[in-house]
């Protein structure tokens, strides 16, 4: 009988699910998450996961809720177990018993243009200023920034090529003249330091042969936010949110923003309309109309 026990490096069942994930093009992070969730499920059962019943699944999901597991983790577990039961084990009957948890969607934290400028100015060094400049100036995710290569910057077409972004999709991001100049400043400094290889990473890590880590970028943002005196909770993704919101406030079509962000669904991009201050301020409130009528004035449009 196959198991996911920790004392067995790899089992036939784990090998099968990993092969299934590779064949379907799942990313390495997703593969690791799925294996971890299946292992946790097996530990709860105390026996191989391919012996699970519908009652086992119900009890496991109740256990997750009762122990305070968050909606995001529960839903990630559901995705992993659905893959296991539907693809690897061909047990769609068990897959249908899994229940997704509603995850309350919070509005993203967004910086003002002035706050974004202060954050970039406070970045700890030109490398981090350039990296955070890409996150804000092109709206890239932190992992996308970290894995940029020198050749991904196309100064002729004024584009940044993003390879294998979220969902393993390639796309082009915008490259403004100001961002290009900032990157050139960093490129010259990196060459002077001897850390910028001709065809290497745009933002090398501690070793020239490795890219900067997402953790390093998170630390740099937090350090810059503290120096800049920002009281908001800021992460590299905050710069991506700010990029989209500021474009929307400047009148950029939301479908264009969707393409720049690499969103597959317009409704994901539409979230930024809820945090756009210009969109909110453009609406005339009912009280304003009421007061205008009471004062005999023409109500605002």
UniProtKB/TrEMBL annotation:
A biological-process GO annotation: DNA recombination
Keywords carried by this UniProt record: DNA integration, DNA recombination, DNA-binding
Instruction: List residues of the Tyr recombinase domain.
Output: 106-285
- Entry's InterPro entries? CB, DNA_brk_join_enz, Integrase-like_cat_sf, Integrase_catalytic, Integrase_recombinase_N, Integrase_SAM-like_N, Tyrosine_recombinase_XerCD
The residues covered by the Core-binding (CB) domain are: 8-89
Report a single Gene Ontology molecular function. Answer: DNA binding
PANTHER family cross-referenced by the UniProt entry: PHAGE INTEGRASE-RELATED (PTHR30349), PROPHAGE INTEGRASE INTD-RELATED (PTHR30349:SF64)
Q: Which family does it belong to?
A: Belongs to the 'phage' integrase family.
Give the protein's recorded name: Tyrosine recombinase XerD
Organism, per UniProt? Answer: Roseibium album
